[in-house]
Amino acid sequence: xxxxxxxxxxxxxxxxxxxxxxxxxxxxxxxxxxxGFLLTxxxxxxxxxxxxxxxDLAASRLSEEKLTSEIERMxxxxxxxxxxxxxxxxxxxxxxxxxxxxxLTAFTYLEKHKNVFPESYGIAKELLIDGLQITKSxxxxxxxxYYDERKRMSDGASAMTALLKGIAGEKT
Length: 172
Known about the structure:
The chain is mainly α. It has helices at 3-20, 26-88, 96-112, 118-131, 146-168. The longest helix is centred in the first third of the chain and has 63 residues, at 26-88.
């Protein structure tokens, strides 16, 4: 109930009661003073209580909006991870270029959301640079390092797939 409506209703009731108990005697005036004091106390308390309730309600609405926004953001992140997984397909590949591209796509996605997943982003960055050596190429298919590179990219793609499945809420 609006505070001003409450105040108006209580004021109207007070006017009606004062008309009913009005008498020119000292006892009547004392009752009017007591009644006025009690009415002021009740109206003031009701007004303050109503204002507190409105503040609490406004704070609850703000909290609800923040939580709803956070849920929508997390669902959006989950959907994005799912879309990246769908674009790759759920089968593994031995194609070094495809794996490298997937790893970079997944890393770019983590980088975009590094404020939500700072630890995962940091680990993925170390994995790309130090573990997978993403920028290092073995050269031709017949070279000695080709199998090693293919294995690194396959392992990296599997790790990124598992990470994205975790974000998407899928079983790994």
